[in-house]
Amino acid sequence: MTEAFLSIRGIRKVYGVVTAVKNVTMDIAEGEFMTFLGPSGSGKSTTLYVLAGFQDPTGGDILLKGESLLSTPSHKRNIGMVFQRYTLFPHLSVGENVAFPLRIRRRPQAEIAERVRAALKLVRLEGLEDRMPAKMSGGQQQRVALARALVYNPPVLLMDEPLSALDKKLREEIQFEIRRIHQETGVTILYVTHDQEEALRLSDRIAVFSQGEIDQIGTGPELYADPATRFVAGFIGDSNFIDAEVVAVDGRSARLALPGGAIIDGVPLHGTARVKDRASLLLRPERIDLRADGAASAIAGEVRDITFLGNNIHVLVATPGAEPISVRLPFGHAALAGLATGARVSMSFNVADAHAFAQAR
User: Fold this and answer.
1) Of 19, 113, 267, 335, whose CB has the highest number of CB atoms within 10 Å?
2) Domains in the chain: boundaries
3) Among 332, 127, 351, 328, which residue's Cα sits nearest to residue 256?
């Protein structure tokens, strides 16, 4: 069995009576882009700070190439770090900021000059060595911070919400640059964000955090198509959840009775459920087909709202005894012809695209 490049083993972090991180375990391959995704307070940044050595864990271990890092001080772990706030030294020029990690490592001046030039070229800021941070945009400052973190060729780069202070257009531009830099350098990146779109755009794999634990680790398509928990299903992508009653269970699938009387058979079941238990039925908006009322084996409803979103149309459908269901159809779809608010429609879907999550008894 191949040894993991970076291994997180049962990390826990407790603050008084609050457990911020509970038994976080994962292996990261060399050169992988792994994102920690979750809401505020889910434990993702705390896990990153333990990796960086900024916080000591209450339990567990971190291994880099098979060697524990816990006894190594943060400044000797040789791990790069990029923060949400750029943390540039305002009294130093761009070149001096990028050179700083090399100067404290007492590298020769010729090597420092060459590495600074290479790092600034990598982030496309060559020729700006003498500029002061205050004269730069937020996006440029974050590029400088990235160059400074990479200039000494760390084996691992940690990034904590590095783009959250930027506007949407600039954030997307820097996301592209981070992906390009990762592909060019092959550095192992652990990236923290609460933005699912950012995680999907950047990552090789994503670890979804919830209440101090990891709910699921997988690629973006894996998490979207086969979420392990209701939380993951709701956090990755747009979702409809319909409260249903379990009518029958057959192994890992269930027959569900929906509000209004529709019966759906063969839905993949997550968790343990018995007859008459409650379950949440997940339907993705783009996986629902819409047609004129009367289709067999479909959920009936009434159009509440129609919104044009460019290449797709969002239709909100009210259903008996349940929350309105979001449906997303491509622009020009046949079902949109003559469709108007108040129209009676039916919604159908492939049960293989749906998921049922057993609710706690």
Assistant:
1) 267
2) 6-233, 238-358
3) 351
Coil vs helix vs strand at 157: strand
pLDDT tens for 303-332 read 999 999 888 999 999 998 788 999 999 988
Beta pairing, strands 355-358 & 18-28: unpaired
- To the question of pTM greater than 0.85 for the whole model, the response is yes
Q: How far is CA 222 from CA 37, 127, 228, in A?
A: 15, 43, 10
Count of Cβ atoms closer than 10 Å to residue 31 Cβ: 15
| CATH of 238-358 among 1.10.10.1320, 2.40.50.140, 3.30.70.580, 3.40.50.300 | 2.40.50.140
Three-state secondary structure call for residue 252: coil
What is the rounded distance in angstroms from the CA atom of residue 249 to the CA atom of residue 34?
36
Do 357 and 257 meet the contact criterion of CB atoms below 8 Å apart? no
> What are the E-state strand segments in 155-275?
156-160, 188-193, 205-210, 213-218, 240-250, 253-257, 263-270
pLDDT in tens, 2-16: 678 999 999 999 999
6-233 in CATH: which number? 3.40.50.300
The secondary element (H helix, E strand) that includes residue 60 is: strand 59-64
**Residue burial 294-333, b: 16+ Cβ < 10 Å; e: rest:** eeeebbbbbbeebeeeeebbebbbebeebebbbbbbeeeb
Residue located via tokens 């700070």: 49
Residue with tokens 């998490």: 223
- pLDDT, position 36: 98
Q: Please state, in angstroms and rounded to a whole number, the distance separating the CA atoms of residues 326 and 131.
A: 50
- 176 CB-contact burial (10 Å; exposed 0-12 / middle 13-18 / buried 19+): exposed
